[in-house]
Amino acid sequence: MSALASVTQQQAREAAESMPIEAIDPANPDYFVDDTVGHYFARLRRDDPVHRSVSPIFGPYWSVTRYQDIMSVDTNHTVFSSSWQLGGITLTDAPEGEKLQMFIAMDPPVHDEQRKAVAPIVAPPNLATMEGLIRERTCAVLDAVPRNETFNWVDKVSIELTTLMLATLFDFPLEDRRLLTWWSDVATMNKAINPNALEPHERMAELGKMLEYFTRLWNERVNASPKTDLVSMLAHGPSTRNMSPLEYMGNLVLLIVGGNDTTRNSMTGGLLALHEHPDQWAKLRANPSLIPSLVPEIIRWQTPLAHMRRTAMADIELAGKPIRKGDKVAMWYLSGNRDGSAIDDADRFIIDRARPRQHLSFGFGIHRCVGNRLAELQLRILWEEILQRFETIEVVGPPVRVRSTFVRGFSSLPVRIPG
Amino acid sequence: MPRVTFITFAGERHHVTVPPGTTLMRAATDHGVPGIDGDCGGQCACATCHCFVEMPWAAQLGARSAREDDMLNFVVEPRPNSRLGCQVELTDALDGIVVSLPEGQH
Question: Cα distance from B7 to chain A (closest Cα, Å)?
């Protein structure tokens, strides 16, 4: 870490420790750009684990910061709703008419029907059939990276690989695959935080173009025999074939976003973590059989989605605090993943932990990430192929982090591969 | 001390003996039996300890909780004798129990 970055961390640590507890508002985009939010979470976990803030961006909300409290909320879908009708699953309430109807933002029973329609494509037997193609594409991307010159890992590797994977899942025309990245970014951009984001109506117009494109694909496949790509499965599935255009759009966005920038940011985050922990890199090089526990540790460390939001449907007490019906509640996975009372040495990046999958990054309960094993598969293949090709990958400059309190990611990581 | 036989999807048998009170999930994960994951550590929150309890032992188990049912709802291949391993505690009365494992967990 550079001297300037160390100073920033030190100042944030001091601020987090000394400011009055009621003033702490972790949903501050600056904390995410600087990656200083962890200090505020540490203070809250210790002094006010279920904490009320009034955000200038998001209004009043509760922060849930400890692992076990997060688990309680995540598994209590009867009280804590994910429904888009109450504001959905991010701290930002989407304005009326802009709310995307996707099953991540639905409660049972409709959630259940739609999830079950999609789940088979990422179930173990299907993953086995995808592994060969994923490996082939990973090898091609890694073989094409520049050598002995600085390049942006995010663009040339992380985005490229996850976009290829998504195009495979949808059987999307390969030559247009960068549209998937664009739509994923459009879906998650937030004008309230990022001045460069599209205006809300522009955003919906772009998502409308996405809907047009996928409607064309739907029309091509609905009358053909059923195949194993996502569009065909939605077009043929009994509970999804009659969905409204807005629901189809919402589910597409869910699958594109859920399957795209999360994995992308774990691919970048893993490289950065190994760079920052050279002892772990050495351990990995000496023992590639550690890859299956490296992968979930990367996902814990990165926590690609920093929070998930719920809305209380009844009054309930949580860690002694009175949550009222209608209150917005943020489960900070990023905080729970550093909770030393639940995870041993939570503040350390350790690639051979005993229970590496016990992290919160995929959530728990009925909304637990349906693509979690596919994400792990992609990362496992990536690291298998990296270890076979590159003795070292030098990170030659600081990362640039995405300005978001939801997506924990990178727009750039400059690297250089000798050879 | 109850003995458990796990049968993997490929047909391999694994025999394990554990203290009473151990869950099926821990009986598998503590002894390296492949095919049960238990990502959440046993809190009925992930459904990656899905297993099929064979008869007659299936009939001797307590009923599934609502929470167990909610999670089992999403496994790829639910059967009438599906259980989440973390919700089944082994007792001497269940000695000899045979448990089959699904093709995968996710």
Answer: 18
